[in-house]
Amino acid sequence: VDHSRNAAEAGMNLQPTKLILFEFPGQKDIISNNPTLGLDYPLKLLIWEGENGKVKISYNDPAYLQERHNISGGNENISEVGAALEEISRASAKSLEK
Questions:
Q1: For the whole model, what pTM was predicted?
Q2: Per the count of CB atoms within 10 A, which of 1, 23, 29, 45 is most buried?
Q3: What's the pLDDT score for residue 59?
Q4: Among 37, 34, 21, 35, residue whose Cα is nearest residue 85
Q5: Do strands 43-49 and 17-22 pair parallel, antiparallel, or not at all (unpaired)?
């Protein structure tokens, strides 16, 4: 989702801002048992240009979402997804430094 392009189409100015949606194995099983997870599903990375042109990357840690939606079990899968998001963020940040 290109928020900055959408803002420009609405006549507004927004620093470059994009939202990337991710789907990981097992998420649909978790959401079927925890419908409020639909507020945060699919998982997302927000990439935006901050002060002085520095690119920032943010996401909600799946462990936080587990607590927020009172999800029991699935700790191993949630940890794996959290590690994957962290790795994707680190690799993306590293590629943007070049």
A1: 0.79
A2: 45
A3: 94
A4: 21
A5: antiparallel
Query: 22: which strand partners?
Result: 43
Please give the full DSSP string across the chain, using - where no structure is assigned. -BHHHHHHHTT----SEEEEEE--TTHHHHHHH-GGGGGT-SEEEEEEE-GGG-EEEE---HHHHHHHTT--S-HHHHHHHHHHHHHHHHHHHHHHH-
Share of the chain above pLDDT 90, in %: 41
Residue that the structure tokens 């079990």 belong to: 73
User: CA 16 → CA 20, 24, 72, distances in Å?
Assistant: 13, 26, 37
Whether the per-residue pLDDT at 76 is higher than 90: the answer is: no
